[in-house]
Amino acid sequence: MIIPWKELDAETLDNLIESFVLREGTDYGEQERSLAQKVEDVRRQLITGEAVLVWSELHETVNIMPRGRIKG
Prior knowledge:
The chain contains two helices and three strands. 40% of the residues lie in helices and 19% in strands. Strand 2 and strand 3 (61-66) form a beta hairpin. By secondary structure, it is α+β, with helices and mostly antiparallel strands. The chain is globular.
């Protein structure tokens, strides 16, 4: 189930994004990016609709995924 990010409290959204960034371990190329930069990248993706917040009923967790990976 997709969760509308605009309906979340700002602090809750910040915490979700930061948690996602910290557990992802993504390679950002030759230049390392700060946590704040990574958080802003994900926030921008949510704003533009490139990424969405997804609730998993099976795992009872929230994740951030590229919109194109959502089925249905």
